[in-house]
């Protein structure tokens, strides 16, 4: 089978014209004057989509990727798909004709749960826009069914095709275009054209910024109304600043808490505002909290490697925290890739015979990369070879590139929603601290990023004891024998919870696995004071993830309280809170949040 699929010239898929036998098999009642239009529309829709797949295939090959290896659909299966599509479109057509007679008609197809694109009443009150809406939903269903009919070399190829189909479908939504969006028409009439002018001005401003505005960025300022927890930078190097937060209790745990956030975004997702700040909560629970604030690297830091991040990140931070607090061991917490970095650093220390951490908390962290969700779909040997050649020995992976990848995972919410509201309706995005953080992207050093993608995402080598060498030693997560608390979130589209669960099988210490409700961010940033959502605990960790969930107990509220109670076991007693940050060796450099977090990509 050839790797390249020729979609446009018909050599692989044929001309995509409906076969006479499939038309003859349709009931006589199905033949109406509109049928030829439906046939042509279905033919064009399939042809255009398969052409889109071919373009993506060629782009991936040009980038060095092996691309998608898809075979043509079975002719009979394809004919059956067309027949079903024609019948559904005819059903919709007849429903619209009936609606024209009596003003009523049950919808033929409805949006999926959670799809807010067509929530405005104009989409249903107007027969024209109701038809446009339902025809689009039927077209979307046809594209998804067509993808399922394409034989693929492997499941990853099929998943790639599904992902691209979703991007294609989302981009062609009638909500994204002025002529087919009734909300655009209403806004334009009510504002006497001002919404059109405002939308054009919004587009010009965003073009100048190079990205879509998701929130009113003028409202927020790091250090003024977000990332405001009081503290001091007590250490810095080429990779990070270390923040020590001021106590909020008279007594604190003897063992301090070190937090290692992800380096792919800014740390202040854990310290947005006082009412939803995980940092503040941890301080309020009687912990002396230190936090790694990763540098937003520029060209001079383009040489930094994975080992540099381990040595100059958590390993250095642990040493500084132990010195300041005069303790042998600290408690440590890592979030997302920060958790992967922290766990790797502890494995390095274990290989060196050191155990400076008493407990480990990992939030939505991958240690096993067997299923990385959609992020891993386009990481393969070819694409990584291209990246290695471009920046594997030095260079920068731009924050805008990373932000684009994450937005594409939820394109309707993080791209097209703002195209419609900002540019078509001329609206100004509402202030939202989380979306301000989401837009505050960070760069990564090329050598670090290439090593991370190859050794973890592609080869999944961290899970294999002794396979990876880091900082001059062979690492084994099984040698990290401290008690650990692993949180995953049930709707996480970045770190699938079942894969995160595998960490309980890899770490050597006693594990407690907890599953939170919601997604990658909202599931973590779930303040205990609001008592929202749920979490699950107590499943049998001897089996797989699904077996664990089957036996788990659901508890209402936030996992924060459960974690705080767990952490107190490893406090090693109490002492009076420190009045001043740092010590004689590590003096205050500047107030929190520090310079590094304010640097723009």
Low-confidence stretches: 1-32
Give the overall form: globular
Distance between the termini: 44 Å
CATH topology of the largest domain: Rossmann fold
CA radius of gyration: 27 Å
Number of helices: 20
As a percent range, the share of helical residues equals 40-55%
What is the structural class?
alpha/beta
Features of the shown structure:
601 residues, alpha/beta, Rossmann fold, 2 domains, eleven-stranded mixed β-sheet, two-stranded antiparallel sheet, 20 helices, 12% strand, disordered N terminus
Structural features, described:
With 601 residues, this protein is α/β, with parallel strands linked by helices. It folds into 2 domains: 20-190, no CATH class; 231-375 and 460-598, Rossmann fold (3-Layer(aba) Sandwich), CATH 3.40.50. The chain is 42% helix and 12% strand. It has 20 helices and 17 strands. The chain has helices at 20-24, 35-62, 75-102, 122-125, 127-149, 155-171, 182-190, 194-209, 278-284, 306-325, 337-351, 381-391, 399-409, 411-424, 433-439, 446-458, 497-501, 503-506, 545-550, 559-567; strands at residues 231-236, 240-245, 251-253, 257-260, 289-294, 330-335, 357-363, 396-397, 444-445, 469-470, 473-474, 484-489, 511-516, 534-537, 553-556, 574-576, 590-591. The strands form 4 sheets. It has an 11-stranded mixed beta sheet, with helices on both faces. Strand 4 (257-260), helix 9 and strand 5 form a beta-alpha-beta unit. The longest helix is centred in the first third of the chain and has 28 residues, at 35-62. The radius of gyration is 27 Å and the shape is globular. The two termini are 44 Å apart. Mean pLDDT is 89; it is low at 1-32.
């Amino acid at each position: 089978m050839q790797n390249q699929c020729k979609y446009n010239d018909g050599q692989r898929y044929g001309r995509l014209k409906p076969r006479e036998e499939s038309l003859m098999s349709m009931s006589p009642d199905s033949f109406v004057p509109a049928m030829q239009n439906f046939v042509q529309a279905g033919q064009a829709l399939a042809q255009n989509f398969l052409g889109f797949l071919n373009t993506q295939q060629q782009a991936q090959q040009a980038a060095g990727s092996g691309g998608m290896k898809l075979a043509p659909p079975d002719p009979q299966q394809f004919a059956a798909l067309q027949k079903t599509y024609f019948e559904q479109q005819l059903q919709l057509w007849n429903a619209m004709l009936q609606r024209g007679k009596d003003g009523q008609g049950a919808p033929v197809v409805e949006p999926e749960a959670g799809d807010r694109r067509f929530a405005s009443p104009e989409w249903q009150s107007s027969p024209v826009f109701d038809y446009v809406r339902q025809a689009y939903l039927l077209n979307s269903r046809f594209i998804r069914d067509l993808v399922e009919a394409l034989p693929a070399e492997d499941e990853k190829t099929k998943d790639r095709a599904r992902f691209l189909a979703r991007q294609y479908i989302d981009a062609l939504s009638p909500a994204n275009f002025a002529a087919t969006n009734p909300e655009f028409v209403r806004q334009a009439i009510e504002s006497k054209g001002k919404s059109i002018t405002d939308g054009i001005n919004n587009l010009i401003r965003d073009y100048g910024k190079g990205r879509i505005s998701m929130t009113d960025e003028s409202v927020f300022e790091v250090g003024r109304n977000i990332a405001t927890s009081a503290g001091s930078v007590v250490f810095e190097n080429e990779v990070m600043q270390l923040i020590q937060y001021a106590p909020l209790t008279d007594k604190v745990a003897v063992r301090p808490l070190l937090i290692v956030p992800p380096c792919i975004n800014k740390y202040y997702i854990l310290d947005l505002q006082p009412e939803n700040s995980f940092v503040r909560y941890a301080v309020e629970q009687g912990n002396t909290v230190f936090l790694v604030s990763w540098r937003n690297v520029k060209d001079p830091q383009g040489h930094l490697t994975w080992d540099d991040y381990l040595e100059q990140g958590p390993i250095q931070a642990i040493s500084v925290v132990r010195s300041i607090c005069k303790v042998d061991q600290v408690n440590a917490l890592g979030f997302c890739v920060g958790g992967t970095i922290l766990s790797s650093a502890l494995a390095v220390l274990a290989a060196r015979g050191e155990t400076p951490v008493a407990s480990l908390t990992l939030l939505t962290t991958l240690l096993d990369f067997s299923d990385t969700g959609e992020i891993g779909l386009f990481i393969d040997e070819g694409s990584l070879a291209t990246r290695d050649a471009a920046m594997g020995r030095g260079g920068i992976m731009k924050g805008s590139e990373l932000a684009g990848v994450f937005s594409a995972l939820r394109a309707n919410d993080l791209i097209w929603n703002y195209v419609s509201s900002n540019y078509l309706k001329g609206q100004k995005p509402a202030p939202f601290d989380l979306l301000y953080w989401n837009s505050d992207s960070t760069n990564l050093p090329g050598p670090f990023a290439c090593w991370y993608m190859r050794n973890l995402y592609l080869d999944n080598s961290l899970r294999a004891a002794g396979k990876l060498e880091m900082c001059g030693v062979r690492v084994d997560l099984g040698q990290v024998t401290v008690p650990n608390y692993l949180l995953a979130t049930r709707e996480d589209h970045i770190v699938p919870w079942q894969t995160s669960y595998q960490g309980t099988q890899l770490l050597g210490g006693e594990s407690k696995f907890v599953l939170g409700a919601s997604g990658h961010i909202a599931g973590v940033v779930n303040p205990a004071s609001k008592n929202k959502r749920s979490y699950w605990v107590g499943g049998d960790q001897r089996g797989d993830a699904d077996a664990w969930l089957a036996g788990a107990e659901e508890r209402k509220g936030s996992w924060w309280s459960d974690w705080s109670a767990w952490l107190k076991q490893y406090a090693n007693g109490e002492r009076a809170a420190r009045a001043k940050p740092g010590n004689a060796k590590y003096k205050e450099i500047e107030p929190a949040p520090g310079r590094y977090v304010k640097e723009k990509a």
